[in-house]
Design brief:
Blueprint lengths: L4 H16 L46 E6 L13 E7 L4 E6 L5 E7 L2 E6 L5 E6 L4 E4 L4 E6 L5 E7 L7 E2 H6 L5 H8 L3 H11 L4
Antiparallel strand pairs: 1-2, 2-9, 3-8, 3-10, 4-7, 4-9, 5-6, 5-8
Keywords: Apoplast, Disulfide bond, Manganese, Metal-binding, Secreted, Signal
GO cellular component, one term: apoplast
Main location: secreted
Length: 209
């Protein structure tokens, strides 16, 4: 028994569409937008799009905050584009800190694999939740809320963090206030901080005005 040609073509298109709809590997040659990257043509997708090796090496913690974040977001790991998840590695040297920050695009879950990390967040009612985490401990940070991580031990701490978005975004509060050209007078008015303190912080973080 032979199927009509249009039935065969319909089945073929359905199977092809189902396969292509399983994922949307990022085409990094095209611009990123609010909805993510455009999809790479299925014929150009390879297994390497779904594998990322960048989290094996420790990040460089020889900086002001003594910490490093190594992301595996859509821009680094095209296979997570459109899947609603991503991952990153945190390396925090002794005395290091990931300053107060937010991820406007996704919630975060942190798993400590080495050392001790004091982590916490502030909710919209200004209630504070923080705890010192040890190896194997996990903590979640709801989307958009201010949160932080501090090395609470005497040796380098390592954690992996996963996000509910392939591009969760990042805004570090200290840099938002003091690492740009926002006028000192405006910062003083909106934060109640003394101007000499603001200028000192601007000097440390590279801000002007």
């Amino acid at each position: 028994m032979y199927l009509p040609l249009f039935v065969v073509l319909t089945l073929f298109v359905s199977l092809y569409s189902a396969n292509a709809g399983d994922y949307c590997v990022a085409d990094l040659n095209l611009p990123d937008g609010p909805a993510g990257y455009s999809c790479k043509k299925p014929s150009k997708v390879t297994v390497d799009d779904f594998v990322y090796h960048g989290l094996a090496a420790a990040g460089n913690t020889s900086n002001l905050i003594k910490a490093a974040v190594t992301p595996a977001f859509a821009a680094q790991f095209p296979g997570v584009n459109g899947l609603g998840l991503s991952i990153a590695r945190l390396d925090i040297a002794a005395g290091g800190v990931i300053p107060m920050h937010t991820h406007p695009g996704g919630s975060e879950i942190l798993a400590v694999i080495q050392g001790q990390i004091c982590a916490g967040f502030i909710d919209s009612a200004n209630d504070v939740y923080f705890k010192t985490l040890n190896k194997g401990d996990v903590m979640v940070f709801p989307q958009g809320l201010l949160h932080f991580q501090i090395n609470a031990g005497k040796s380098t701490a390592i954690a992996f963090v996963s996000f509910s978005s392939p591009s969760p975004g990042l805004q570090i509060t200290d840099y938002a206030f003091f690492a740009n050209g926002l006028p000192t007078d405006l910062i003083a008015t909106t934060t109640f901080l003394p101007k000499d303190v603001i200028k000192k912080l601007k000097g440390v973080l590279g801000g002007t005005n």
